[in-house]
Every structure is written in C-alpha cells, then in structure tokens.
Amino acid sequence: MGLPYGRIGLCIAFLIASMGPAWAAEPKAAPAPSTPWENMSSVALGLLAVLAVIFLSAWLVRRLQGMQGPNNNAVKTIAVLPVGQRERIALLEVGGTQLLVGITAQSIRTLHVFDEPVVDAAGTGGNGDFASRLQAMLSKGVVNQGRGTKQKGNTE
C-alpha cells in the first residue's frame, strides 16, 4: 500500500514540519554594520567562485567530447550543400561507400548511392568541387529525383 498523499504530500509535510521551529523562534538582533571593504571582498569571492565553475565546466566539456565511443569515425561528412532555409544535401562516406542524402527538418532520405567515389577523403574531386559536380549530375539526371520523396497516397 502506498502513502495516502503520495510522495508530493510527504515532501510538503516535511517542509512544513521543518519550518515550524523557524517560525516560533524569536527574531534575532540585526547584525553589526559592515564596512564597504567587507562587502566588496564577499562579492569578489562570489564572482571568482562563479568564474571558476564556468571555466571548470568548459574544461570538462572539452575533455569529455573525445569520449564518444570507438565508432565515431564510421560515418564521415564529406560535403554539405544548403538548398533551402532548412534543407541540405550532404555527401556522406560510410564504409568506403559514398551516399548522397537529402536532409530536411522532418526526415533524411537517401538520394543516390555512388558506385565510385565522387569526392576523395581530402575533399577534392577529380573535376572540381562538390557543388559543381552535383549540379552537373542533377542536370544530367544521374541522381534519381523520384526516389525518397513521398507523394500523396504513397505508402512508402
């Protein structure tokens, strides 16, 4: 059987019970006035503590970024071409095979799987940069434009 009020009720009851003695206590006398130097030193120490926490957090983030696992080089992004405000075409290399994918806000679709590499690992192709080669392939109709797009009534 559970508690009649659940965990939230138990927490509220504990808070009320722990504050009871604070309400019943007599008010304390006002502390002695402090000098401006005491106030400034406490503010400076607080600022240094906050800065130390920020720098420690940044160091930890940089330190832990490399610990993502042994397969972080399995998929390489070779080139990305923005074609709209939220749409991109990306050339990926997975296991030696290059894939042309379309990326939208809702989905990622494979546009074409290349038999031979279009762009080498250094990022330079045989005939020019990725954008010009992609444009030439689109104009030739090499990339299957109907693949990966959903039409109304299509249950693919």
Explain the overall architecture.
- With 156 residues, the protein is of the alpha+beta class.
- It folds into 2 domains: 49 residues; 66 residues, no CATH class.
- The protein is built from 3 helices and 4 strands; from the N terminus they run H-H-E-E-E-E-H.
- A hairpin with a 5-residue loop joins strand 1 and strand 2.
- It starts with 5 loop residues before the first helix and ends in a 16-residue tail after the last helix.
- The C terminus is likely disordered.
- Compute the number of helices: 3
The share of residues in helices is 25-40%
Order of helices and strands: HHEEEEH
Number of strands: 4
Query: In one word, what is the shape?
Result: elongated
Note the main sheet.
Answer: 4 strands, antiparallel
Mean pLDDT: 75
Calculate Rg over CA atoms: 31 Å
Q: What is the CA-CA span between the terminal residues? A: 50 Å
Secondary-structure-based class equals alpha+beta
Query: Segments where pLDDT lies below 50 for 5+ residues?
Result: 147-156
Oligomeric form: single chain
Compute the number of structural domains.
2
Transmembrane segments: 40-61
Pfam families: FliO
Keywords: Bacterial flagellum, Cell membrane, Cell projection, Cilium, Flagellum, Membrane, Signal, Transmembrane, Transmembrane helix
Family: Belongs to the FliO/MopB family.
